[in-house]
């Protein structure tokens, strides 16, 4: 009924203990409330003077207020624990995200991770707030009330006790039936509910095909189908609530009739009868509340599972094997891959098999291959975003299991096809790796990256906000901003490029190339691309195919050897001559 | 409150549907009212029943009616509730179908504009969510509110029937619960909700930003900054939540407090009113107990209303959608195409000062093939929009056979076929997806088109062949294959002019080359306008034009340009890797 994991949060036990005590007292308040109201009513029934009900009504008022004050107190006492727990969860989640790095995001999806951190944890908060109180209420209140009723009139108590498992039994049976039906329909269901967004997104295509007008009726029809399917599932799902409702309400009616008969033949007095009647709804209230919030608790439970799944992942260890030195990379350093294998979480993504190479100093290493040959995977492994399954990597003579080394990560700049621009000022974006850089240094780096003219056109210069939702930045400029980061932080002597120019038009690429080439000096460069002209700037080339390095050497050597490199080049050149 | 009426002043999304499905609406409200009526009546009747039984009536028949009524109300309450929930969901889902169609039509009219202002599909998800919000507005706010008020009116009138003065007292007292409290909730919560949404949005943006840029954060090694950045919104959200909860708890307590006072007054009043003889005194318990079941619907009203700000936002957004419909131009049609002409076309975006297109003229005849090149932002996409009639030139005009393109929009799909960067595949079968090009095409024609684009082997290998759902096969279709499916559609569409809008931008050179070969092969008899970002496959066309700053820069056949133009020559060589 209650998730065991809830008990693992620090501070849950004292909070629950206090809650239990308050719930216990509250149950008595419920009894007092019923008792004194009944006394007042019975006095009136005996046609006593109105003065005789002053005391009972006052006591009723006290009990009634105490009951609801206790609810207030429960919330008040529980909330700090819940707030602290969710806050801690959120912070732990963020820290974990940083430690796990982009691979977890790639696996779970950006939207999913963001939702988890925001709504997911909100749901956990609601869940924690509900579950502890409701479960305590359910496990204490009905039984205290029942014992009190039994003390007055055991037969009615027996009836109430007997009906309870029946209610739960029917709830479960009908709930399961609804679940089964929902499961069976789920796939079709999901498709129908997504159909609308699907259609909206595909609208430009529909317009191109001249179907935009006729499709409106299709939208309506599909939505109507969805309604019918939903209704048929809801009909069953609501039956479970109906059963609960039916049994509880009818039980109260039956109790009333029982009591009526008992009163007629004199086996019970009006006062106890009225108390029992007043208490009957309170006996059923906890289970009804529990059932009403069932979906909120279910969502919270799922969110908790998802968040804990991320939190319980193992973070890479041995992140400080590579000794810190400034700069990390120098002209006489070497990096060596020895029989390295890399595999992704899911099997159908490309994997790297038996990667061997040995590069040193400020070599320019070109990585070439068709799509899906493993170029990006290799760059990601070099960046430490992916860890090898086996094999050895030797950096500066130190053997490391992976490149997720703190010292290593301070040594390179990573420039993908679309460098990520933060939703911040241009200055913050430029100085992302070196937040303490001076204005002069930033301006100089921007100038080297060829950004000066563009910055002059910006309304607030370096302070102009850029990134998603702010000022648009073209692909070429995004590359230049990433380059400026490299210029700015002189201690980063390694450049990892992953198809930096693939989506740029040829003229922009030419201009960018002029800016890029000077940066290559005094840097170790890994450059994955399928734009062939870059190969002319490289002094070592890795040719990749299906996750393996099929050929490596200087461009001249490879050209001479023939084989994969020459084949690939001619195939790619074929794209430009017919 | 002012905001409330302002929202509905020009509303054509919420109110009209309340009117259109009036009968069902009345039924929902009736069933909802009866649910709580039966709940109250059950306690009322039971109170009377046992009081009457306690007078030891001479014959069981004396209490026969209340006994039957107890069972009737006991069954009635869950039955009505069940019916109410089904009817209200059915009602709302019916409206949702209407909404979706309307939203689709509204978006359809502005498809181009929406694409332009919001590049990602997010806005569409937001709009789809808005519909869900309006759905909840009915279920969680409107229905409970109206049903609560009906119940309130019933209670007040019922009591007023016996004693108008006391009825008036109840009118005021319960009025605090059903009118003042909801208003207070909106006023207090509305402001906080507004704040919370802002913080939430900041956090959302920040978190998305952090997740998308996680790789850079990792490389930067600024773990502390990363965590510190998220702390502020986390704390802010927590404190807003806390304030929100505190308000809710106190409000619920206040509601209970007033409610308790109402019960006490009712009992007191019954004591004064019905103590003249035993027959009257039997009613005291009835009145004393009847009010309890109403506290739940009354308390729910405030909660439902406090969600109003969320709904208000959505209502405003959907209402704003179809307010500025583009003006309609009278349509005509043309026969067989013999000329596409741009005559001194100039274009400036509304509100911008720079001319995107500056005096362009161009004439194309059937079968001619033109390539357009130029850096991004030079007006290539704008030129395509002008040709398709999605935008209207500021001066000059675009004509087909001398007829302005704006007058040919109804015929557009018969004139233009478009293959763009991201062809959209709908979540239906492969067969249906291709058939979108021509709904009247037979299965054989669809298969012939698929064969022409050389996908027949691939489709044959899919688990269900042509009947495979695109979503399930999603990962199977690479970028190039998606383009080919889209090309098959265009073949079925069989329009004389084909627009290729950088269809190969995300493909590797080998895939690109093969795709272009197929495209120009199957479309050999069409007029083609091809926007491209580099020179791969340029020999397929008989005319190349470079756009620079809104006007044509270099032009000629590929062979002429290569011979006479050094700039073209160097770009061409670069593209071939020289």
TrEMBL record, chain A:
Gene3D superfamilies: ABC transporter type 1, transmembrane domain, P-loop containing nucleotide triphosphate hydrolases. The keyword Zinc does not apply. It is a multi-pass membrane protein. The lineage of its organism: Bacteria, Bacillati, Bacillota, Bacilli, Lactobacillales. Residues 17-299 form the ABC transmembrane type-1 domain. Keywords: ATP-binding, Membrane, Nucleotide-binding, Transmembrane, Transmembrane helix. The keyword Membrane applies. It comes from Levilactobacillus fuyuanensis. Its main location: membrane. Residues 335-571 form the ABC transporter domain. NCBIfam families: CydD (TIGR02857). SMART domains: AAA (SM00382). It is found in: Cell membrane. This is Thiol reductant ABC exporter subunit CydD. It comes from the Bacteria. The chain crosses the membrane at residues 12-32, 52-70, 127-151, 157-178, 236-261, 267-285. InterPro entries: AAA+_ATPase, ABC1_TM_dom, ABC1_TM_sf, ABC_transporter-like_ATP-bd, ABC_transporter-like_CS, ABC_transptr_CydD, P-loop_NTPase, Type_1_exporter.
Automatic annotation (TrEMBL), chain B:
The keyword Lipid biosynthesis does not apply. Pfam families: ABC_membrane, ABC_tran. Its main location: membrane. It is a multi-pass membrane protein. InterPro entries: AAA+_ATPase, ABC1_TM_dom, ABC1_TM_sf, ABC_CydC/D, ABC_transporter-like_ATP-bd, ABC_transporter-like_CS, P-loop_NTPase, Type_1_exporter. The chain crosses the membrane at residues 24-44, 56-76, 142-162, 168-188, 249-270. Residues 340-574 form the ABC transporter domain. Residues 26-308 form the ABC transmembrane type-1 domain. SMART domains: AAA. The keyword Zinc does not apply. Signal peptide: none annotated. Keywords: ATP-binding, Membrane, Nucleotide-binding, Transmembrane, Transmembrane helix. It is found in: Cell membrane. NCBIfam families: CydC (TIGR02868). This is Thiol reductant ABC exporter subunit CydC. It comes from Levilactobacillus fuyuanensis. The lineage of its organism: Bacteria, Bacillati, Bacillota, Bacilli, Lactobacillales.
